[in-house]
């Protein structure tokens, strides 16, 4: 009874409606490029198999002619024993000299025969009498020997194997002292002036390019090298124009000039090595009136808008 008689009435408070806290972001329309992600492996635009055009024993091999060796156009890679081809060249030179001497002799005989036929009263002297067939034969023989000399000179030059362009040695298949025959594969050379990357895109993604037939656009390549993310800028030069039967993808081909930085070295930039796996961001067509929103603000294809009068509107994207 005492507790009941001394109780206090609870404090009366007015009921308040809970006010939600809303994060508001002001957005603006802008012009953006629709970028397309892709991936690919870096390969050289040009690569060649180095083969021998003459046969013989490997006399010397350059120190640059190793896997990973960087060479310039015209650099000597290997030398095949040239003694036999030097002898062939001397023989061709001697044969040409003999042919030229025989030609001069035949020309002199022709002049003598012409003088002998000056008093001939039977009309035009025959060609055989003027030794014209013999002269043509000696002229043809000189041409034949000149061709043989040119062939001997080329064979002697081919004993030295040179790099056909600036590149990097992929592999070497011969050793010092090894006997090689005609057409032996001595190594493989990759060109370092231009790198190519095949980038797959789905058929639907082609709609985001400025031009499907001529997709001339920029591409940004990136890869993890030496523990950091490195980027390179390239150019899409063409589309292969065929849908791959295995994965139903269309391939765009990107080019990166001077991937090994042989001509233009940039501080802090790393070379784009062949065989690297890179991710690509392809610049698509430009669209006006675009609003960029974080992905979590779009739910079931709808976004929440706050109008000027603080009213809420659910708008479909």
Describe this structure in words.
The protein is an alpha+beta fold and 317 residues long. The chain has three helices and 16 strands. The strands form four sheets. It has a six-stranded antiparallel beta barrel with strand order 1-10-13-12-11-14. A four-stranded antiparallel sheet has the order 2-9-7-4, with no helix packed on it. A four-stranded antiparallel sheet has the order 6-5-3-8, with no helix packed on it. A hairpin with a 2-residue loop joins strand 11 and strand 12. Helix 2 runs antiparallel to helix 3. The longest helix is centred in the N-terminal third of the chain and has 34 residues. The mean pLDDT is 88.
What is the N-to-C order of secondary-structure elements (H for helix, E for strand)? Answer: HEEEEEHHEEEEEEEEEEE
Beta fraction:
35-45%
The mean pLDDT is 88
Taking pLDDT < 50 over at least 5 consecutive residues as the criterion, the unreliable ranges are: none
Main beta sheet strand tally, sense and closure = 6 strands, antiparallel, barrel
* Number of extended strands: 16
Distance between the termini: 68 Å
CA gyration radius, whole angstroms:
41 Å
Structural class: alpha+beta
**Strand order of the main beta sheet, please?**
1-10-13-12-11-14
Helix content: 10-25%
- What coarse outline follows from CA principal-axis ratios? elongated
Q: How many separate helices?
A: 3
